[in-house]
Write a structure and sequence with these properties.
Elements (H helix, E strand, L loop, with lengths): L7 H20 L2 H13 L3 H8 L3 H19 L7
Helix pairs in contact: 1-4, 2-4, 3-4
């Protein structure tokens, strides 16, 4: 096997983690979800996301930060009150 080759179990676990991540992103508020998808799944730069969404680059960064925090809380089982 090549050095970077993954076992079937590793591939299964990666796929499962990816699907869990996508499911949690879809549960976020729509503005945060779209921003995270554009940045991390599509690979768009912040400036392009700002143009597409019609907001400032600082607005994109704010949504990314909020979305990442909320996503991390959900994935680690923590829930934010309120």
């Amino acid at each position: 096997l090549a050095r970077d080759a993954k076992s079937p179990e590793e591939l299964y676990n990666l796929r499962r983690a990816y699907l869990e991540l996508v499911a949690e992103i879809q549960r976020l508020p729509q503005d945060e979800a779209f921003t995270l998808i554009f940045r991390f799944l599509v690979g768009m730069p912040v400036a392009e996301i700002a143009q597409v969404l019609g907001i400032s680059e600082d607005g994109v960064r704010m949504r990314l930060g909020r979305g990442r925090r909320r996503l991390a809380e959900r994935l680690t089982g923590k829930r934010e009150d309120g």
